[in-house]
Amino acid sequence: MVKLHISNTPKNMIRTLRNIVLKQAGRLAIVCVLLPATVRAQPIALNVLVSGSWTANFNHPESRMNAWRVFDVDANSIEVDLVQFSLSKSAEPGGVGFRVDLDAGPHIPFLSRSAGLDMGDFGLRHGCLTYLDQSGLRFDLGKFVTPAGSEVIESFDGINMNASHSYLFGYAIPFTHTGLKVAYPLSDAFSLMAMVTNGWDNVVDNNDAKTIGLQLTVIPVTDLSLIVFGLMGAEQTLNNSNQRKLLDVILSYKVSDAFSLTLNADYGMEDVPDEATWSGIAGYIRYAFSDVFAVNLRAEVFEDADGLRTGTIQTLREVTLTPEYRVTPKLILRGDFRYDWTGNRAAFEKATESGSSQATASVNAICLF
Description:
This protein is mainly beta and 369 residues long. It has a single domain (10-368), classed as Porin (Beta Barrel). 11% of the residues lie in helices and 51% in strands. The chain has helices at residues 10-40, 108-112, 167-172, and strands spanning 45-57, 78-89, 95-104, 122-132, 138-145, 176-185, 190-197, 211-221, 224-234, 243-254, 259-271, 275-288, 293-304, 314-328, 331-342, 348-349, 354-355, 357-368. The strands form two sheets. Strands 1-2-3-4-5-6-7-8-9-10-11-12-13-14-15-18 form a 16-stranded antiparallel beta barrel. It has a two-stranded antiparallel sheet with strand order 16-17. Strand 11 (259-271) and strand 12 (275-288) form a beta hairpin. The longest helix has 31 residues, at 10-40. The chain is globular and about 60 Å long.
């Protein structure tokens, strides 16, 4: 068991974590060789999520598309938008585990599959081998969902407050990475994570450079948490020099069992070859009136100052109100009432002309198995 003290300086913390990683690397190699026999001896869980939705766009766009949306792009269409199959084995201290998530649906698999891994109408969202050392040091090797952002791709173990996704989720951060992730809890209040990956949303790297990520999680008191995550690496095809950088910050506070607040901010830049930037902030409020009914509110601003992320220089804003009703712990109904707007008068399609705003209403049902 490795013991760390809060009084250590950040430099000492990093040096200690580095020594632990080097010490355990040999054990990880041995574990990989022994994996088949180890996994067979442990229980394996199968979980399924099915999500269906219908979204009405009051602009009545001729293309039948919701502008600037991430997954809920089809207007006025009833869809089974996601079926997730997850096969997993939890890693016990000193042992190994794995998780494989497969997605099926009209849009989500195409966005989250990552370049270099074409599976048709299916997507491999997550595929990792995990080794957890007795000291608490955790290795994840494979493809995994990005640690950035407060929102996730819906999963049996992770449901967002709102049915639609934010602009930050869609344009400010990546969806997935492929590489090695190492995490270690320094104490009850501090934990570190470092990762080396091929880049943003690619399984097969498009250049010879690698992307480095670092994350610090701080829980100073119960119900208050701060997560700071940074990414840096060359992401352009056959270009190892032009860097893309991202800083992602999440502050969460659980005021009570019923009331919680979350703030997510992002700032990114990339050499293209001149520096282009994007930034945004999103706030979330959740109030649970009972064990079965809650109301969630999100408001955000996303500025694409140079048009790098959306293809247009613009500042997108939205407010979303989401009532949530849990028919059973495994059946969740949500309604999304969302209003998007921007200063660009041609940003949103209407029946006869373009406009600067868009209003939608949707119904979403999620079943967990």
